[in-house]
Design a protein that fits this description.
about 40% helix; signal; membrane; 12 strands; NrtA/CpmA_ABC-bd_dom; cell membrane; ABC-type nitrate/sulfonate/bicarbonate transporter, periplasmic ligand binding protein; single chain; about 15% strand; D-Maltodextrin-Binding Protein, domain 2; alpha/beta; 5-stranded mixed beta sheet; globular; about 375 residues
Length: about 375
């Protein structure tokens, strides 16, 4: 099959997104009409929450979406809502998320108190928000808390709030902290509600974050369309590699139709987290394709975390699930046609607690954690 001459089965695509800075590839693709050279047009459909993204993907109201990696796996496994066979077409970005705590807690940690001591100083169970029960932010939050000796299921009340509501909830006093994407940490700091105490790149350096997701039957029935969409998003991600381009898209993201947040609160952490904070790795969108390959081992890590926290039990071929969800063959075809290098399948990562994940023995990996469900 000559992929480059294959016509998309669908030429107009509705793409869902949540108001976050890392929706930048979708914004670039739509505003610069990058799909035209691949035979598609893109309509952006802002959603109020990740639950809305899930529901509209499943109903077919949107064709694909900027989505939490963990949302896709939660739906696939039937623990993030109704079960449905899902597909990860590519990774859209790495890094770029954070954990913010209320001002007194953040000040205590920044003045040298341990995370465990600071969180216990209030004398009650803290309320800390994340964005979806099986999502990336829940998993980053749980991992970070456990690495600091805090049991995320017993010592903390974890609640789900849509990202754009996080700063408001902090200001209103309903939250002690939250884990989400930008620019909502910058907004919370600007409003005096809290301080950023950790960046997710400190938990897992260069971790996968948002993905381009769709139902698996959509990719199966429309393979040329799916490849055209991947190629369009690769073009958008490559465009974002230039610092000057990130400044441009920050201006666009500030619009009422996209994030509705002042550019001054978007651009610094989109260009470099916290205006260049040395603790944080910058959000990455492309890096010659190193960002975008949907590794099986990355999906398997999320399944391992669901087992760690008692969200998934029973006899299941975890690797087979990850191989079915992550569309590595389709991605390779699209990347080859685009002249984008495909990185290796295995990639070891060292986490903040010194644990190493390489996609190998899941049972042995889980057995090494002292804090788990």
């Amino acid at each position: 099959m000559n992929i480059t001459s294959s016509q998309p089965e669908r030429t107009h695509l509705r793409l869902g997104f949540v108001a976050l800075s890392d929706a930048a590839p979708l914004a670039v693709a739509a505003l610069r009409e990058l799909g035209a050279r691949h035979g598609i047009t893109i309509e952006l459909c802002r959603q109020p929450s990740w639950a809305a993204v899930r529901d509209k993907l499943l109903s077919g109201e949107i064709d694909a979406a900027h989505a939490l990696y963990g949302l896709v796996y939660g739906v696939q496994l039937g623990i993030g809502g109704p079960q449905a066979d899902m597909a990860v077409l590519m990774v859209l970005n790495r890094n770029g998320q954070a954990i913010t705590l209320s001002r007194p807690l953040a000040d205590a940690i920044q003045n040298g108190a341990s995370v465990k001591d600071a969180l216990s100083s209030l004398g009650r169970k803290l309320v800390i928000a994340q964005t979806f029960p099986t999502g990336t932010h829940a998993m980053w939050l749980y991992y970070w808390l456990a690495a600091h000796g805090v049991h995320p299921l017993r010592d903390v009340q974890s609640v789900v709030i849509p990202p754009p509501r996080m700063a408001d909830a902090m200001v209103e006093g309903g939250l002690d902290g939250f884990c989400a994407g930008e620019p909502w940490h910058a907004v919370a700091e600007a409003r005096g509600a809290g301080g950023t105490v950790a960046y997710t790149s400190e938990i897992w350096p260069d971790h996968p974050e948002k993905v381009l997701a769709c139902r698996r039957d959509f990719a199966a029935l429309n393979p040329n369309t799916a490849r055209a969409l991947v190629r369009t998003m690769l073009d958008a991600c490559a465009w974002l590699d230039a610092g000057a381009h990130r400044a441009q898209i920050a201006q666009a993201l500030a619009s009422a139709e996209l994030l509705d947040v002042p550019r001054a609160l978007i651009e610094p952490r989109l260009a470099a987290p916290d205006g260049g904070n040395a603790r944080a790795l910058p959000v990455r969108f492309f890096d010659d394709g190193a960002v975008n390959y949907p590794r099986i081992s990355d999906g398997l890590w999320f399944i391992a975390q669901y087992r760690r926290w008692g969200m998934l039990a029973g006899d299941l071929d975890d690797a087979a699930v990850a191989q079915a969800v992550n569309q590595t063959a389709l991605y390779r075809e699209a990347a080859l046609a685009a002249g984008v290098a495909v990185p290796g399948e295995r990639c070891a990562a060292t986490f903040c607690d010194g644990r190493v994940w390489d996609g190998g023995d899941v049972a042995a990996y889980l057995a090494g954690f002292e804090i788990r469900a």
